[in-house]
Amino acid sequence: MTVRVVLPGMLRDLVGGVAELPVELDANAPLGQVLDAAFEPWPILGTRVRDERGEIRRHVNVFVDGEDAKRAAGVGTPVTPSSTVHVINAVSGG
Amino acid sequence: MSETVVGIGTRKGLWLARSTDRVSWQLEGPHFLMSEVLSLLFDTRRGSPRLLVGFRSSHWGPSLQHSDDLGATWAERPEGSIAFPADTDTALKATWQLVADPHDDQVVWAGTEPQGLWRSADGGETFELNRGLWEHPHRPEWGEGFGGGAIHTVLPNPTDPQSMLVAMSTGGVYNTRDGGASWSPGNTGIRAYFMPHDEWPEFGQCVHKVARDTAKPTQLYAQNHRGVYRSDDDGVTWTSIEEGLPTNFGMTAVAHPTQGDSLWLVPIASDGERIPPGAQLQVQRSDDAGATWRTQAQGLPSPSYTNVLRDAAGTDTDDEPGLYFGTRNGEVYASTDGGESFTRIAEQLPDVLCVRAVTLS
Fold it and tell me: B-chain residues within 8 Å CB-CB of A60?
């Protein structure tokens, strides 16, 4: 099964303009492992979304099947093989 | 023909002001739109000048990039240039200072938030954390100024490769004399009025900026949160030089790049009134190491209610050095006569966080 990792428009120029990064998954896996696989070919993208500890940056939100991972188990949030993961820049700033 | 380039780091990106006569200026930018540009270095120690920029996006975190063609193209290491080692369980928040080493033209120093000192041996592409300072027993007790817990001043000693000063708010000044292996606080004589039980602590002072004298490398000047000081022993002990100034508060301090005993401050009315003294935007200059001061304000606006942050002032490398500073309301002023008169070279920018200038032949 293929997990869809959907990127925000602001990050798509880092990956050649694509909107989604597919990740092949046979069984449930923690979100951190899915993001590792999705970002592996795109290390700059990885540093934009997560810090060097692997944590999701403060003003970035990652949704797993519509649920905010920071309100679940963060990078430990389970992802199923049929999940959709959305990476979104939080609504903030001035 | 020489060209002067002024790097203007703002809350929302980087602009470059370029001039061949320091009279008319062309403004280029923004680079890194919507990112806070906190640190700049024009590194002229190589064939073509390298511009190093430390910035952070509120969404996408900190980054350090360099350009070897003055901003036409930028390079970034995919895994980042500065990253805390896994055993520190720490994430980089921002790079607040980038400094060229005076002894090795491949070495660049960086000061970061959280309070880290970093050394690059490859011109600023990869950095290694200084463990001596990171593991200092005082570190858990260092506080955070309004700008966060950052090493905002890094001053290698130009005559002694083993000696360096760093400063942070609110931790104070620290010195090494063994190439960074060990560090000692250097705050004797600096008052920390805000400490309720000990106004003369070993560390914890809120230093805003330290500048090193051009002619006497062991003579330093510190603009503190309420207090202006000089050290004559390479940053160990300090004496007040605030007499004669309109106020003892301000953020930045700039040493004259070619003339010893000379420096500029930009005073702020007080910590409770962060506007220019008397609402006159002004520079204070001393040519006798802080014994006397004179006001320089020709060409600067009054009334003015803006402010100049700790790294928002710098000098170029012309034989007759230019002085530049940027304000929180997005204006940049330049002087080519030592501060006697100023002209505005940029306006309507976002608030200015750092200014660095260079003269290129």
Answer: 59-60
Q: Which of B32, B60, B95, B129 to mutate to test the interface with A (most CBs of A within 10 A)?
A: B60
What is the reported pTM? 0.96
Closest Cβ–Cβ partner in B59, B78, B86 for A44? B78
Output the tens digit of pLDDT for each of chain B's 361 residues.
899 999 999 999 999 999 999 999 999 999 999 999 999 999 999 888 999 999 999 999 999 999 999 999 999 999 999 999 999 999 999 999 999 999 999 999 999 999 999 999 999 999 999 999 999 999 999 988 887 899 999 999 999 999 999 999 989 999 999 999 999 999 999 998 888 888 999 999 999 999 999 999 999 999 999 999 999 999 999 999 999 999 999 999 999 999 999 999 999 999 999 999 999 999 999 999 999 999 999 999 999 999 999 999 999 999 999 999 999 999 999 999 999 999 999 999 999 999 999 999 8
Contact B63 A47 (CB under 8 A): yes
Give this complex's ipTM: 0.90
Q: Please indicate if any CB of chain A lies within 8 Å of the CB of B34.
A: yes
Handedness of CA B339, B342, B346, B351 (dihedral sign): positive
- Closest-CA residue of B relative to A60 is B59
Q: Kindly tell me the number of DSSP H helices and DSSP E strands found in chain A.
A: 2, 7
Write the CA distances from A45 to A67, B59, B83, B123, B348, integer angstroms.
22, 12, 15, 24, 32
Would you call B78 and A47 a contact, using CB atoms and an 8 Å cutoff? yes
C-alpha–C-alpha distance, residues B52 and B42, integer Å: 7
